[in-house]
From TrEMBL:
Pfam families assigned: HxlR (PF01638)
Name of protein: Transcriptional regulator
Organism: Limnoglobus roseus
Keyword Plastid found: no
Source organism phylogeny: Bacteria, Pseudomonadati, Planctomycetota, Planctomycetia, Gemmatales
Domain of life, source organism: Bacteria
Residue ranges constituting the HTH hxlR-type domain according to the UniProt record: 13-112
Keyword Transcription: yes
Swiss-Prot/TrEMBL keywords: DNA-binding, Transcription, Transcription regulation
One Gene Ontology MF term: DNA binding
Amino acid sequence: MAKDKSEASDELEPLTKLIGILSSPWTMLLLHRIHLQGPKRFGELKRILGSISTKTLTERLRMLESEGWIHRHYEPTVPPQVTYSLTERVMELDGVLKELVVIADRWYGQKGKKPKG
């Protein structure tokens, strides 16, 4: 028996949510950098990511924290120190992140570039 549209939509809802989060600008790169380099403070993340705006980085970090993807560790020092790290939940993406790096290198890295001429 064929599924109606609402059943198909319900089945795709978790995937739609996951892809929506991952595809938001800067999210994958932000996750990748913390995954590779470990916990980072806001200023470090901003320098590592380059042209990301303060507003966008703040929005991404808040979104990822609310989703349980990033842990925000606050130290009440002067000035306060806030460090961001990945949660265990995100570590399930380890294989995906590594494979994306391999594909990116193959497609767009030195080996993947087409010779001129």
